[in-house]
Design a protein that fits this description.
Helix content: 25-40%
Largest sheet: 8 strands, parallel
Number of helices: 21
């Protein structure tokens, strides 16, 4: 289904523009108002022979509708290659019920049935109508139930015809089509979430620099582009940029234009009564403290409501401290109740209406949720806006059966300034994670308002569109659509031919970036000695980079600017960033080992640091310099939660080296060099294929060395020699020749000006064959992806759902429906994993889950674990509710819960994960005997016996 179609009501199937336009799509001919590149019986010729249809609207319609109609005309002209409609061209009639004489006449004549449309908030119908008026045999009619419904109907047609909402904001070219047809039938759409919006936030330095360079500031020229994008994405609501900025105060036309175009304006969670944060700095007197300065604050707020006038608005009520800080120490419930009551009295006095006639929202952000939890309530007509924890984990949702006239909403984040670390540079948000959280919100009844903090807006194009798509109709976004969403999105921007390749790049990039925000990465993040972790991370980024470069070369030149900013740049910049910090880590590791190659790693870091600046310069230059400053966000050199003022080169070591060549040895699994002897991590038939030994140079001259294995079946293979003779040895076993049992085999390394070093390979060749299909414990920790269960058992109407691509390694597994009550441990749904254990005895089972929160306030969420038919052990996913524990969970983007279990015997057993509470998302299991070697991602997944 197309990106647009995913917004549609579940009963309405819309044709993906990129697919429909790439080839005839006869199978979809019956879909109401579907757009096709081939003629359709009874259809409407939108473009015919390179000539677009005429588009008409009554001048009496809303000004915003007339703007959208002009936009539709321009879009059809671009689609036709610049063509203009003939005087007798086919006719598109666009209008709003009650505002368009043409539309009302069609309804009165019985030619247009709007019985299902009337009263539908922002609803629209697109329908081919026969003989709409004398002299016109057939017309395509777009009718809206209200102003925005008509606007959405016009822009929806543009998008399904092939015009991306990102044509201006990401330079996506409009494809040229000689012919386009619209199928007969009525396409009725209306949103399920009433208010759907974005928050421009944390906008300095990137968006700030760009807006000033491009528009001269955050004025109506800037906001005209923002408003149009919101509407093209079928959003309707905006929290404007607010740090040092005021939508009303900076340019009086900003609010006028919003109301004209049809965008509802609000103010953020900590900006009550339509006054923006900077305005208190400009005009306020005395402290921002209602207990000390109520009269001045009431006057300040009254001016905000007076200024709002008749502009369509959603007014934030309540109060936080100045600068988005807590208002008081503790929970001043009575004070905040007084504030809200006084604010509502002002709203009523200024508007002359009951306060409930003015839409209002109370944001339960950070400590404000404590007021709610402590029992504070606001009038039922006020929307309660729940929030995530700033890291994509929703904190609270309505309890089952809780309803209120004002409804509930969710404030979500794709960008954040605050602890444990800012994340502002690039998109690090997986749409799969957004889906999992917002599905739960919708299931709980939070469907009045969805708003997401998009930071600078760019480069959040993909998650922003996904968020607003899902808000249009969450039910039309089942988990099955996640596997195709990025492909559909890529096709809408770049065409169908390379959509799958581009989707793989987008999915891969967001997965790797979401593992840990780049601002949190340093030289110690990925292990340089365990599980080849740093090498695997480098290889993953390198492969994405290679594929992105190949696709870029293959795409038409006209698509290069769009591909650069939407796909190529974030991959190239992230790959470079990860290489930089891994090289910085190697520099410190090598310096500690006395390797002369430490200097080469320092040189590499410096080169990668310069490359980062060069990539930013390239971004500034694309599209003729259109996006200058948009990548000004600093991202290298964080030491605390706040961003550095400039990118800072990591501290590097350049140790002095002896004059002569001196051989050194390092082995897998330890950071220190080996002076006399050391063991390698175990080698097992069912474990890692090889282990490594590094033979390196401590001096400036070339080294030479010999490495001798103590057994003919233990192979020592030399890799290519680097500068100075540094060489990696790969140690492996010829299992067909190796004797059964456990063995210790010496490998003697003798080099220049150094005594011999003996490295011992610990080899296990078990005589017992493991159980078929079982994951095999093989001398070290065993990792299993949650989706690789042997059996998933449903119970009590609750089943298991695999969320593809979610998480740090493969996918997530959770239960559905999300509103089902808790299950009794050991009697609910269960996942079984078949594991062949080496021996009986205690093991640690570490279950890795997404860092979701308790949305009910009841404690938990919980799951249970067991082996075979043993009694389940209940595990709380948040055993430590401290800020330090939360910092670690969101920084790692995972929670690891470890339980000690007893394995009754060697051989195959079932490791079981039991559902207890809803909302737990399993990602991985790691089984170990004692602490596993230190790493960020953990061991690669274990081997399954054939």
């Amino acid at each position: 289904m197309s990106i647009t179609g995913l917004r549609a009501a579940a009963s309405v199937l819309a044709l993906a523009a990129a697919v429909a336009l790439s080839a005839p799509v006869a199978a979809h001919a019956a879909q109401p108002a579907a757009v096709s590149a081939t003629p359709v019986a009874g259809g409407f010729p939108l473009i015919e022979g390179g000539k677009p249809a005429r588009v008409e609207a009554d001048v009496t319609d809303w000004p915003g509708v007339l703007r959208a109609v002009q936009g539709l005309r321009g879009d059809l002209s671009k689609l036709s290659g610049g063509g203009q409609p003939a005087k007798d061209a086919p006719l598109v009639i666009v209008g709003t019920l009650g505002k368009s004489a043409q539309i009302d006449a069609l309804v009165a004549a019985g030619k247009l049935d709007v019985s299902s449309l009337k009263g539908r908030w922002e609803g629209f119908v697109q329908q081919v109508v026969e003989n709409p008026r004398p002299g016109v045999a057939r017309a395509l009619v777009i009718v809206g139930a209200d102003k925005r419904g008509t606007i959405f109907g016009a822009y929806d047609l543009s998008e399904r015809a092939g015009v991306s909402p990102w044509t201006w904001w990401a330079d996506v070219p409009v494809p040229v089509r000689g012919d386009l047809s619209v199928a007969p039938g009525a396409n009725l759409q209306a949103p399920k979430v009433k208010y759907r919006g974005i928050f421009l936030n944390d906008e300095n330095p990137a968006l700030y620099g760009w807006a000033n360079a491009t528009f001269g500031g955050f004025n109506h020229g800037f906001y005209e582009r923002v408003y149009e994008l919101i509407l093209r994405l079928k959003g309707d609501y905006l929290w404007p940029a607010m740090w040092g900025k005021s939508l009303y105060d900076d340019d009086p036309l900003n609010a006028v234009l919003a109301d004209e175009m049809g965008v509802v304006i609000g103010a953020s969670h900590h900006e009550p009564m339509m006054r923006y944060h900077v305005e208190w700095e400009r005009y306020g007197q005395g402290p921002w403290d209602y207990s000390k300065n109520p009269e001045v604050l009431r006057r300040f707020w009254r001016e905000g409501i007076e200024r709002m006038g008749a502009n369509e608005s959603l007014v934030t009520v309540g109060m936080r401290g100045d600068g988005d800080e807590p208002m008081t120490q503790g929970t001043a419930t009575r004070l905040l109740e007084t504030i809200v009551a006084d604010q509502r009295r002002i709203i009523g006095e200024v508007t002359g209406k009951d306060p409930s006639a003015t839409p209002q929202v109370w944001a339960l952000y950070k400590e404000v949720q404590d007021y709610y939890d402590a029992g504070m309530r606001v009038p039922d007509d006020v929307t309660l806006l729940f929030a995530d924890d700033n890291w994509g984990n929703i904190r609270r949702l309505p309890k089952p059966g809780e309803k209120r006239p004002g409804g509930y909403g969710v404030y979500y984040h794709f960008d954040y300034v605050g602890g444990p670390r800012n994340y502002k540079w690039l998109n690090t948000n997986q749409v799969e994670r957004t889906w999992e959280q917002m599905r739960r919100a919708n299931d709980a009844g939070a469907d009045r308002l969805w708003i997401v903090n998009v930071g600078d807006l760019k480069p959040m194009e993909l998650p922003t569109e996904f968020f607003l798509d899902m808000a249009w109709d969450p039910a039309a976004m089942p988990v099955e659509k996640l596997a195709t969403y990025t492909g559909d999105w890529a096709a809408a921007q770049f065409g169908a031919e390379r959509a799958d390749e581009i989707a793989a790049l987008l999915d891969g990039y967001t997965k790797l970036s979401a593992r840990r925000k780049p601002e949190l990465i340093d030289g110690t993040t990925f292990s340089l000695v365990n599980f080849r972790e740093a090498e695997r991370v480098e290889a993953e980024w390198g492969e994405l980079e290679r594929q992105a470069e190949a696709v870029r070369k293959a795409l038409p030149k006209a698509q290069d600017d769009a591909f650069f900013q939407l796909v190529w740049f974030p991959i190239a910049a992230s790959a470079n960033f990860n290489r930089l910090y891994i090289a910085a880590g190697r520099n410190r590791l090598y310096a500690g080992q006395g390797r002369s190659a430490a200097a080469a790693q320092a040189d590499k870091v410096e080169a990668l640091f310069a490359r980062d600046a060069e990539l930013t310069r390239q971004h500034d230059a694309i599209a003729g310099g259109k996006w200058v400053h948009m990548m000004d966000q600093t991202h290298i050199g964080y030491t605390g939660w706040q961003q550095p003022d400039r990118n800072i080169l990591p501290e590097l070591a350049r140790p002095a080296v002896p004059h002569a060549a001196v051989t050194g040895v390092a082995v897998e699994g330890r950071a220190a060099s080996v002076d006399g002897a050391a063991d390698l991590p175990p080698l097992s038939r069912w474990g890692a294929a090889s282990r490594w030994i590094d033979v390196f140079n401590r001096g400036p001259a070339q080294i030479s060395f010999e490495a001798t294995s103590g057994a003919s079946w233990l192979k020592v293979a030399r890799g290519p020699a680097g500068p100075g003779g540094d060489t990696r040895l790969e140690v492996s076993v010829d299992w067909d020749k190796a004797p059964t049992g456990r063995h210790r085999v010496p490998i003697t390394v003798k080099g220049t000006a150094a005594q011999a070093v003996v490295v011992t390979a610990v080899v296990d060749n078990p005589s017992r064959k493991p159980a078929k299909g079982a994951f095999v414990e093989a001398g070290g920790p065993l990792a299993i992806e949650a989706a690789h269960h042997a059996r998933a058992t449903a119970a009590g109407g609750v089943g298991w759902t695999v969320i593809p691509n979610l998480g740090r390694t493969l996918s997530g597994v959770t239960t559905s429906p999300t509103t089902a009550p808790a299950s009794e441990p050991g009697k609910g749904p269960v996942l079984d994993y078949l594991v062949d254990f080496e021996a009986a005895g205690p093991v640690d089972l570490s279950v890795l889950v997404s860092p979701g929160l308790d949305v009910t306030g009841g404690g938990g969420p919980r799951f249970a674990v067991s082996i075979d038919d043993g009694a389940p052990v209940v595990v709380n996913t948040i055993p430590d509710s401290s800020e330090k524990a939360w910092d670690k969970a969101v920084a790692d983007n995972i929670r690891m819960l470890t339980t000690s279990l007893a394995v009754p015997s060697a051989g195959a057993h079932r490791v079981r994960l039991w559902r207890v509470d809803p909302g737990v998302v399993f990602q991985r299991l790691v089984i170990s005997r004692g602490p596993a070697p230190e790493s960020y991602l953990g061991p690669p997944e274990g081997t399954k016996a054939p």
